[in-house]
Structures are given as structure tokens and as C-alpha cells.
């Protein structure tokens, strides 16, 4: 069964360090999403890609966060520098096309000390 | 006003009972509606999608949509302890295909 792959599963870092997360969507899925989920809350969209283009990054803190999907397949989300408030689950999801069912990866649990 | 609102719970039901989870949304132009289940520490997994008014059944799960009232619900029949999780309602606004998630309802099924 096709899955969205994410790595690492867990990341512990110190404040002011750089961190990066990787996501490989289900093959053939054109749309890729990065979400942040704080404990007790729903997922919050950080950035949405259609193929290699960003279509929505309105909630991405651009002073410290960046995301790319250079060849329209896998994607990387980077935080530099990390802050204490960035501790959360970072979820990647993909869908065949925008607006269709999204399938989630296992997520990356980030702890910033 | 939030795009998607859910009662955060916790909701507790005895094993074998019907669990009813509710969700309201603000944008009348929303087109697609989804229910996800999320176990503690895990990622969301899709339970059901619904696109038109009425009921949609899949095993023990029934999704109900009422666009006039901007309301979508999920019924779980014959609830099992394994159904204990947080249930997330997600809505696709249509315009820009933007997805919004509610904060989730925590369900506990008591054996």
C-alpha cells in the first residue's frame, strides 16, 4: 500500500540550531502539504505545493521557515533558527490534486530544548 | 469565527453505544468534507469523505452532511474501545482548494 514517507520520526534540537524534515509523497500525487500540529490542536497548514510551485504559504513564518519541492516530488521543510515554540508534530500530506483527499505521513515530532 | 468548529470533548460512551461527533463550518461555499481519526502520538488517518447532502455509510461509520445548516457529523455505531481517539473534521472551502481542520473531539469508549 502506497504511503507518504517522512523522516526523521523524532528530532531533538537546541534553540537556535537548524533542523530539516523530509517528505516523499505517494507516487503520482501532485499536491503536497506541510502542517504543524501543536498538542491538543488541529493541524495548521504551513505550505501547500502544486507540483514544484508554492500555492499557499500564508501561514509559514518566512523569517525562519523555508520549504522546497524542487523536482515536484519529494520536499524538505527547514527551520533556522529553531525556537522553543517550534516544538510540535510536523506532518506531511499528499493528494492527487488540490482539494482531494489528503493522506498523511507518520509525522516528525520536534522537541526544541 | 473559526473556519471549522468542533466540540473538543472529551466525549465518553460505553462500549456498544453510538458515538455522535459534530462539526460546523463557516464558509457556505465549502464543497468537500472529511473525517479523520488520530490516535495519540500518531498522524491522522482518513475515515470518511462526504460531498453531498445526506448520509453516507461505511461499516460502523455514518457521515451526515447538511449544507443549509453548515453542519457535518459522524456517527459511530457499536463503539469499540479501539475507537478511542481524537476525531478531526476537515473542510475544503473550494475557493483556492483551501483545507481547514477543526481542533478535534476526543472520544473515549469505556469497556
List keywords for this structure.
heterodimer; A: 113 residues; mainly beta; seven-stranded mixed beta sheet; four-stranded antiparallel beta sheet; globular; B: 111 residues; five-stranded antiparallel beta sheet; 0% helix
Task: Give an overview in words.
The complex is a heterodimer of chains A (113) and B (111). With 113 residues, chain A is an all-beta fold. Chain A is 0% helix and 49% strand. Chain A contains no helices and eleven strands. In chain A, strands 2, 4, 5, 6, 9, 10 and 11 form a seven-stranded mixed β-sheet that branches. Chain A has a four-stranded antiparallel β-sheet with strand order 1-3-8-7, with no helix packed on it. The mean pLDDT of chain A is 94. Chain B has 111 residues and is mainly β. Helix content of chain B is 0%, strand content 55%. Chain B contains no helices and eleven strands. Chain B has strands spanning 4-6, 11-14, 19-25, 32-38, 45-50, 54-58, 61-66, 71-76, 85-92, 99-101, 105-110. In chain B, strand 9 (85-92) and strand 10 (99-101) form a beta hairpin. The model of chain B has no long low-confidence stretch (mean pLDDT 93). Chain A binds chain B through residues 33, 40-45, 55-56, 89, 91, 98-107, 109, and chain B through 4, 8, 31-32, 34, 36, 41-46, 49, 88, 90, 92, 94, 96-99, 101-104.
